[in-house]
Design a protein that fits this description.
6-stranded mixed sheet, 408 residues, 4-stranded antiparallel sheet
């Protein structure tokens, strides 16, 4: 290469535009107040005459309502697998009150956050479970809100009544039908309690009992749950035979329940999030534990691979934000705590946005994946880092969930 050619190449590189970080305001925020998981039960219970509840989600009233939540059954995943889910697919056109549209889960799109939104009828900024793991401002430790470790007083952490409790107090026959292991968990207590909990081991037993309980009152509100679509997705991926087998199974469960609906009943089938498979390569899975640049100034790494809460050492928040934006800004929406709150990630700012007790649980920096990437932590989070299927962010495959409806 001649000197003039080399000089020309160098000059060309000098004039290459700098990468432009994604604008955090461009993230497709959940439709809090009009079309999110938090709006479902308030709409249902208001239609049953439970006082004090309003919702921007328009659903036709029904005296008896069952909500069947399938963990991990994202809208885009369901629509991509009609052969495995013929019954559920037959209901897609009537999703969301006949509009054929999905609900949004909430941010982050993860189980603890979504179940709390379903049960309380509140967005994450109010109920206070804004992630898989978040900092407890009282202790400075990370708290896992799914496993409730380390233990903290559940009702201090989430003080609002659940919609189930309000319905039960209003005379609606109210119950939850789920795996026996969930009967006394703190997450159940703060998110899904109210009325009676019925533990059943198999999916078929849950569907049959849910139908019985639905018929047990003139007004009934029944919740039932199945977890293994999510479980197989995490372990094997949503492109696996194991995941497809679970989708076929849950399709049969939904049909079994639908065929047993008593008169004046509505069944809503929904989910807490979708899922995306990521390859095990350094470009797709950036290892925080091995990346000195991302670790600089960070005291705690919370959240999960595709939705991170980053807690800075005192005085370092602005530097951490700048570095995370520079390194990840083309592939993730990266915002400061206040920017994420003002953009509506955790609730509509006009509705109060985030409760004071919740404010410091949110990271100094919040990073949500836009591209097919995750920030894993191979040493500190070995099990999570080994998962094939991941979720948490606001992309459609993670964020959108069905609201399928069957009426008797």
């Amino acid at each position: 290469m001649s000197d003039s050619t080399a000089g020309s190449a160098t000059a060309s590189r000098w004039h290459e535009p700098e990468p432009v970080p994604l604008d955090f305001r461009s993230a497709p925020v959940p439709r809090y107040g009009t079309g999110s998981l938090a709006d479902l039960l308030p709409a249902v219970a208001a239609g049953q005459g439970v006082p004090g509840l309003t919702s921007g989600l328009a659903l036709a009233p029904a005296d008896r309502v069952c909500v069947f939540l399938v963990d991990g059954l994202g809208w885009e995943l369901l629509r991509a697998h009609p052969a495995e889910a013929p019954f559920l697919t037959s209901l897609v056109a009537g999703s969301l009150g006949g509009t054929g549209a999905p609900l949004t889960a909430g941010f982050p799109s993860t189980t603890a956050t979504s179940l709390a939104s379903v049960g309380t009828g509140l967005p994450p900024g109010a109920h206070g479970l804004p992630g898989y793991t978040v900092a407890d401002p009282a202790t400075g430790q990370l708290m896992n809100q799914l496993r409730w470790q380390p233990w903290t007083d559940p009702h201090a952490w989430q003080p609002y009544p659940t919609v189930f409790q309000l319905a039960d107090a209003a005379g609606v026959h109210t119950c939850q039908v789920s795996a026996p292991t969930f009967a006394e968990t703190p997450l159940t207590k703060v998110a899904l309690s109210g009325g009676t909990f019925h533990g059943r081991l198999t999916g078929e037993e849950r569907m049959d009992l849910a139908a019985e309980q639905l018929a047990a009152g003139d007004r009934s509100l029944v919740y039932t749950y199945y977890s293994e679509v999510d479980g197989k997705g995490h372990r094997f991926g949503v492109d696996s035979d194991e995941w497809r087998a679970q989708l076929r199974y849950v399709d049969g469960l939904a049909q079994r329940l639908a065929e047993q609906l008593p008169p004046r009943a509505a069944l809503y089938i929904t989910a807490d999030h979708g899922m995306i498979d990521l390859p095990f390569d350094p470009e797709s899975r950036i290892d925080f534990d091995e990346d000195w640049e991302l670790r600089a100034g960070v005291a705690l790494l919370g959240g999960e691979g595709r939705a991170r809460h980053v807690y800075a050492v005192p005085g370092a928040a602005s530097d951490v934000l700048a570095v995370w934006r520079e390194v990840l800004g083309e592939r993730m929406w990266v915002a400061s705590r206040d920017e994420a709150i003002e953009a509506g990630w955790f609730g509509r700012p006009g509705d109060g946005g985030v409760d004071e007790r919740v404010y410091r649980r949110i990271g100094d920096v919040v990073a949500a994946a836009s591209a097919d990437v995750a920030i894993v932590a191979s040493r500190t989070e070995p099990k999570e880092s080994a998962m094939v299927g991941l979720h948490g962010s606001m992309t459609p495959v993670e964020q959108l969930v069905p609201l399928l409806e069957v009426r008797s």
